[in-house]
Every structure is written in structure tokens, then in C-alpha cells.
Amino acid sequence: MDEPGSKQTETQDPEAGLVDRTEHLADLALDRMRQQAHLPDVREEASRAAAFLRSMHSSFLWWMLLAYVLTGVAGTLIALGGGLTDWYMHLAMYVVIFSFIIIYLKVHLQARRLVRAFYGLVTLALLGFFAWVLVELVPARLVVIDAEQVLRPDLPLLRVPALALVAVGAALLFHWAVLTRFRHDE
Fold first, then answer.
1. Burial per residue of 58-96, b for 16 or more beta-carbon CB atoms within 10 angstroms, e otherwise
2. Smallest Cα–Cα separation from 131: which of 176, 87, 164?
3. Region 63-82 average pLDDT
4. CB contact at 8 A, 119 and 93
5. For residues 18 and 32, what is the distance between their CA atoms, to the nearest angstrom?
6. Rounded distance, CA 95 to CA 101, Å?
7. Which residue, 1, 16, 134, 165, has fewest beta-carbon neighbours within 10 Å?
8. Orientation of helix 42-55 relative to helix 87-109, angle to 10°
């Protein structure tokens, strides 16, 4: 009979074989995934984003983009600090609108007038809609927190990002309707 510490007992340990088989199957799965999946090169994506930002020569667009980013940060912080339980939805809406602004800027740089008009209108509609949503959230209202109805106080600071969104929308409209008429390709 084998003693507990003998070599024969160690080789017959079912858990050791299970670990080896699991590691082997995991390695095979990772190898298959590397062969089949196309994972983007982060450096390539970053260099494309940097090239896009370098291609924007308009200081007006830079200021508009900066104003929007600051609006998004301030609006998210106001929603978070104001006790809104869905502050992450505000952040998501700022990200969605930011992506539409970036698409507008890309098609502007490509000088595609009809597509720029489409994305300009969609972006203006999103900016206006979200500004309206923020203004609607200013008054106190009943909210449900932990299965209880609670009266949420007024949030007058939400008017600040709402007005900033309107200002960014006005800047976008001014760029689209006026400044694009004077674009000179070099």
C-alpha cells in the first residue's frame, strides 16, 4: 500500500490533472482568439485621433469643442453633486452628443456638405433636447429611492449646463450656417 507522500499518489491526484488540462484548454482558447479576433492597435487608433485633432485648424471649432467638454464635465458633476441617482445617464448623454459633434467635425473637414448638414441638424436637435431635459429637471419632484418616495429639492445649477448646451448649439449653428461659407481649401 502506498504511503500518502509517495510519488505514485501525487501522480494520481485528480486535481493536479484537472489544473493542467484547464490551463492547456485556456491556452488553446487564447491562441484561437488571437488568430480569429482582430484587436485594434491602440497606438494606431491614438495616432489617428491625434491626426484628426491636428487637422482642425479653426480656433473657433477648438473653442466650441472645449466649451462642450467643460459643459459635459460640469453637467455631470452638478448631476452627481445634486443627488441625482441617474447621474451616469447624464454622462452617457454628454458622450453621445460629443460623438455627434466629432462626426460633424469629421464630415466638415471632408467638405461633405449634405452629410455635414444632416449631422449638424441631428447634433443641434440633441443639444436642444438635452438642454430641455436639464431645464425640466430643475424643479423639486418626487423620486423613488430605496422603494420610498422622497422629495428631491430644486436643482437650479442644472440651468448652467443647459445654457452652455444652448451656447454650444448656437456656436455649431453659426459655424454651419456662416463660417463654412468662407472655408478656403489650401
1. beebeebbeebeebbeebbebbeebebeebeebbebbee
2. 164
3. 95
4. no
5. 21
6. 10
7. 1
8. 60
